Amino acid sequence: MEQFKTERSRYARSLIEASLDPLFTISLEGKITDLNKASTDIIGNTRENIIGTDFFGYFTEPIKAREVYQDVYKNGFVTNSPLTIKDNKLTDVLFNGSVYKDDAGNVLGVVVVARDITEQKRIATKLNEAIVFAELTTDIAEQAKSKAERATLIAENAVKAKQQFLSNMSHEIRTPMNAIVGFTKVLFKTDLTVKQKEYLSAIKMSGDALIVLINDILDLAKVDSGKMTFEKIPFKISLSLSAMIHLFETKIREKNLQVFKEYDNSIPDVLVGDPVRLHQIILNLVDNAVKFTSTGSITVSARLTKEDEENATIEFSVTDTGIGIAENKLTSIFENFQQASSNTSRLYGGTGLGLAIVKNLVEAQGGSIVVKSQIDTGTTFSFTLNFRKTDSLDESEEDIEEFAPGIKNIKVLVVEDILLNQLLMKTLLDDFGFQRDIAENGKIAIEMLIKDDYDIILMDLHMPVMNGFEATGYIRNELNNDIPIIALTADVTTVDLEKCRLVGMNDYIAKPVDDRLLYSKIVSVLKRSVYIKNVTDEATLRDKGTKFSCINLDGLIKRTKSNPVAVLEIIKAYLDQTPPLITAMNNGYKDKDWNKLYSAVHKMIPSFGIMGIKTDYENMAKTVQEYARAPEQANGIYDLVSQLSNVCTNACTELKEEYDRIKKTGL
Amino acid sequence: MNSDIKVKLFLVDDDAVFLKTLEMEFLQHANFSIETFATGEDCLVALSHKPDAIILDYLLDGIEKNVMNGIEVLDRIKAYDPEIPVIMLSAQDKIEVAVDCMHHKAFDYVVKSETAFFRLQKIIRIIFKYRKMEKTLNWYMERM
Question: Which of A85, A421, A570, A646 has the lowest tally of Cβ within 10 angstroms?
Fold first, then answer.
């Protein structure tokens, strides 16, 4: 029994000793009567030295410790009461204690467990710190966010402001440039001395250069702001290339260079893309090639690299035998305002915007551009672009119209508020031989239009009282008048052009007005409406049962002094000669034998006059003849050829009738 | 210009209609005798008929490819007898064509148009006026 008791006691003791929490027993007087190893460790003294010492002396706050101790007696226990042990590192503990009694229930003392909570405290502190830190971080993040938002807003405003600024600037610069370049052109047509001509051409060249620069900057700004839009219209690539090369012919000839066009015939005839932008890209590249080449040749080529059901990928390249570009400059030449060397601009001129625009234009259309070059040997720029294939025909062929059969006696209404521009338009239109009236604003234009008939309106967009958009809207919707309207605008941003189309304008022309372009636009717009009118006119004629006669022998009879034999002989000559010529003309066109076409039409021309066939057709024949001399353009003349063929066949039929009649009944 | 001696004209043009019309117009003015030819070759063969003047189309090989063109014919005529005046005719009103003709010693160049006949008439009159002046001058020179 005694043995068992000792064992129990030893077991209990080992449990107590094993505890990591300091354990004490304290007498009623507050003296320590026993303690475990954890306690000696924490206090840092031996067991023997500690027993019998005052328990409260070990705490930083002895009074608080005594109160806790007294609580134990009062309540029989105390739990989790925080205190700090005065050891060498001030250990925080939670004080748990309860009284212990003898078998008779008399209180003998207190058992105290002081749980070391240093670790918990540390974690708690850390947690607190972390919370504070997290809160701080959130604050900072929020500040950063609002800062970023503010910055974005500022940046957006800045871009908008830049757009607006460029747009305004372009307007403000173009309007006076319009007058400068326009009047320079007018001045050129007056009598000048050689010196004056020289000065004048310097003015014009500078003016042109300035306009190109403004356009370039505007284009870059548009690409930068993602405002550049690309059209998707069917067009003929081979025609585009030829036209571009044609533009440089004089320059190339002046420098005694050779120019080659290599065109891959497997490229589909008509593709869908943006011909204007393609022109711009090729123009810039060819312009560079010409600028930097003093001897040798320039080759412009187009090659089909990939083709599937819907798309065709074409690689264009422009190769020159010029000065070349150093290898370390090959990437920087595509940056804004950069040229291969700072000398370049001094020696060759230019702003260094061309290639930047080219790169932007190519990449904005999903293409890529590469450059290969060797100093003193030459440079090749190649770019690839994707085009959608199409079955539809190229309808938007807007070549510069040099010949316009049947377009005469045009009455133009110019709506323009600025006096200088009015004067300029007057001069240009007088040069074309058109009649013109001027209206100062949209309101006056409408009044004039009600009173008088006009063939076409040239409409400025920004005017006081009533602007161009309002005026056009009124003409289309209130007057129900579909007279052709061409917008005159200095501000060729896409926004304005879209607006022009929306209000029902037929076309637009950018100021400063190029006289050739103006003529061509007027003629092509009128042609479309004249064609429609003619068709209806002819239809009404036929409805009335009038016999449409394409010949008129009055002239011939007069010339032969009413000699029936002579008339008959001439008619016979015509009847013998013409049918083979019609065949030759049609075959020439069909087989693309331009010489044959030319010769056939050439031989027809004198007989139009003799047989009294309308001069319109004679002019038409002359147009065909001109086209046949420049075969790249000849694809568009099918209409003319077939009309000529019809009119000559009709003439033959009618002349045959006349021939038989004259033979029988005389003149 | 002696009215009893007719002026002998050669007309050369591959355009039958124009050729016929021109012939008619000349014949209406009594003092011409006309020979017409559709090709330069035919004209050259007939040079022995001693024409007083030749009216020659510029573009003779437009349709028929293997015939002489106007300038070639002009050169042959000049080689045969540089004194025969040749007036070139063309449907194109082009300075290059006119200059080309003049370089090959054509007497003048006329565009085929309504007024062509009047121009030709006037030119022929001038030719004979010159010729007469030349003859008179030579006569006086010999006397001196």
Answer: A646
Q: Which domain holds residue A423?
A: 411-541
Sequence-distant (≥ 6) Cβ neighbours of residue A617 within 8 angstroms: A405, A550, A608, A643, A644, A647
Which of A588, A212, A234, A575 is closest to A395 using CA atoms?
A234
Distance CA A653, CA A657 (A): 6
CA nearest to A611, candidates A547, A554, A548: A554
Measure CB to CB from residue B28 to each of A561, A603, A609 and give the nearest one.
Answer: A561
Q: How many domains does chain A have?
A: 5
Give me the residue spans of the domains in chain B.
7-143
Residues A133 and A91 in one domain: no
Specify if A546 maps to a domain: no
Report pLDDT for B87: 94
Residues of chain A where predicted confidence (pLDDT) is lower than 70: 1-2, 87-89, 163, 167, 171, 219-228, 336-352, 392-408, 490-496, 528-549, 631-636
- A54 DSSP assignment: B
Burial class (CB in 10 A: 0-12, 13-18, 19+), A610: buried
Chain B hits for A603, Cβ within 8 Å: 14-15, 59, 62-63, 91
Question: What would the pLDDT profile of B30-79 be if each residue is shown by its tens digit?
Answer: 678 899 999 999 999 999 988 999 999 998 887 777 888 899 999 999 99
* In a shared domain, residues A525 and A563: no
ipTM for this model: 0.78
What pLDDT was estimated at residue A274? 83
Residue A406 resides in a domain: no
Smallest CA-to-CA distance from A530 within A406, A622, A643 is with A406
Query: What does the pLDDT read at residue A223?
Result: 65
A610 inside domain: yes
CATH superfamily of B7-143: Response regulator (3.40.50.2300)
Contact A570 B20 (CB under 8 A): yes
